[in-house]
Design brief:
Elements (H helix, E strand, L loop, with lengths): L2 H9 L15 E4 L14 H13 L2 H4 L3 E3 L7 E2 L6 E2 L10 H9 L3 E7 L17 H11 L3 E5 L7 H13 L5 E4 L13 H4 L2 E3 L8 H9 L13 E3 L14 E2 L7 E2 L12 H13 L4 E3 L8 H7 L2 H7 L8 E4 L7 E6 L5 E6 L6 E6 L10 E6 L4 E7 L1 E6 L4 E7 L16
Parallel strand pairs: 1-2, 1-12, 2-5, 5-6, 6-7, 7-8, 8-9
Antiparallel strand pairs: 3-4, 10-11, 13-14, 14-15, 15-20, 16-19, 17-18, 17-20
Helix pairs in contact: 5-6, 8-9, 9-11
Length: about 425
């Protein structure tokens, strides 16, 4: 992204459909990879309550993580008489509303999954909302749902279905965040029809617990900074921080006939700590919603470092700033940085080492459009450490697959001869 393009982005940031939801990128927890490997995804009454408790007791709620979202895990059927959705009785023996009421009692918000077609994506075992958009919207509103994630599976998946569900949700009179998971908008300029009907839309396919998937996620928003903003956020799929659940947590078929032990939290990480740091850094800078897809009841050191960092969250949640994008880190260099100009004039800079060996990475103030002179103060966000003041160029050694997330701030100091600040990561 050139500086001219970034300036244009600041002037033309997306004006999204606004039903009062989604001014900031949502933050919370989602089920998909928390018990068993990603895609196993069964969820249970007790598990959801325990995760909600953890958001509060761990301090995550106070940091802004206030969503509890069920993915394609609650395996409803339709009542033969009313055609209304009924959660799978073994998973939710008392139905869904008591669970939602409990989540709300903790000051949290609740989300559910459906599909625009006639079946959901998880093996096609559950009905989608095709032919029942108004009925399902009324059911969700009656239960107290605050967020509807809609996938693009089954027969009869269509753009018109996306539009119909949006209209149906709004007709209930209950404000609900409407989040598109997949669809033709992903290949369309400025995300196509999505900003006109939804508060969020996923930029690309499923995220998996491996480093190649991290790069796939962030590349999906390259050059698209101005296409996202308040009340309409492009989002990268849920975060794998700390590692997905473990295969031995679940036995039997992946269908709703399988059994998963959710009572003992586990992680079977597919990435290194450095790679999780890169994932978190880039999600923060591009202002993706921060939905954690792993088990937050077992907070490993890297999870605490990345998920509980107030400075990183502040960068992500600065809704008045255009999301970050990639640009050359120094003029004439093949290296790049992901940069976000914050609303207070500071800049967040992610220097990612995609290579397999430690490398020296640099950022030059003139290349990233720094407008506060030739000096800046630098802070290592993850280490919560001031790195002092530098002039014109900052350089650091960054380990393989790691990212140095910097916050650059104005110093008010006069310019001085070029120097380098070397910091090992």
């Amino acid at each position: 992204l050139t500086m001219a393009a970034l300036a244009a982005a600041l002037a033309t940031a997306v004006s999204a459909y606004n039903n009062g939801m989604g001014e900031r990128p949502p933050m919370g927890w989602q089920t998909w990879c928390s018990v068993g490997e990603c895609g196993e995804d069964h969820c249970f009454d007790g598990q959801i309550r325990a995760m909600a408790d953890t958001l509060v007791l761990s301090g995550m709620k106070d940091l802004g993580y206030d969503w509890v979202v069920l993915d394609d895990c609650w395996h409803p059927t339709r009542d033969n008489a009313t055609a209304e959705l009924v959660p799978y009785p073994r998973f939710f023996p008392d139905g869904m509303k008591p669970v939602i009421d409990y989540v709300h009692s903790l000051g949290l918000k609740f989300g559910l999954y459906t599909s625009v077609g006639d079946r959901t994506c998880h093996g096609g075992w559950s009905p989608g909302s095709f032919g029942h958009y108004e009925r399902d919207a009324r059911t969700f509103a009656a239960w107290g749902v605050d967020y509807v994630k809609i996938d693009y599976c089954g027969s009869h998946d269509s753009v018109e279905g996306h539009r119909n569900m949006s209209r149906a949700l709004n007709a209930t009179g209950r404000p609900m965040s409407y989040m598109l998971c997949r669809g033709p908008y992903q290949q369309q300029d400025h995300w196509g029809y999505a900003p006109g009907i939804a508060q969020g839309w996923r930029a690309t396919g499923d995220h998996h617990d491996n480093f190649a998937s991290v790069r796939q996620q962030v590349e999906a928003v390259r050059g698209k900074a101005s296409w996202s903003g308040p009340f309409g956020w492009a989002y990268l799929d849920m975060m794998m921080t700390g590692g997905q659940g473990c295969k031995d947590q679940c036995v039997g078929p992946e269908s709703d006939q399988g059994h998963c032990n959710w009572t003992k939290p586990e992680h079977c990480p597919g990435m290194s700590e450095e790679e999780y740091r890169t994932e978190a850094s880039l999600y923060v800078v591009v202002s993706s919603p921060l939905m954690v897809g792993t088990d937050i009841r077992l907070m490993t050191p890297i999870m605490k470092e990345l998920l509980l960092n107030k400075e990183a969250i502040a960068i992500n949640q600065d809704y008045k700033a255009v999301p970050g994008d990639a640009m050359p880190s120094c003029h004439g260099s093949s290296q790049e940085a992901w940069v976000r100009r914050l609303s207070n004039g500071d800049s967040a800079v992610a220097l990612t080492n995609w290579g397999n060996h430690t490398a020296s990475l640099a950022v030059c103030l003139d290349a990233i459009g720094w407008t506060h002179g030739e000096t800046a103060g630098a802070r290592n966000v993850w280490a919560r450490q001031s790195l002092g003041t530098f002039s014109r160029r900052f350089e650091a050694k960054v380990r393989a697959h790691d990212t140095l997330l910097l916050l650059l701030s104005r110093t008010g100091a006069a310019g001085s001869p070029e120097n380098k600040v070397a910091v090992a990561m």
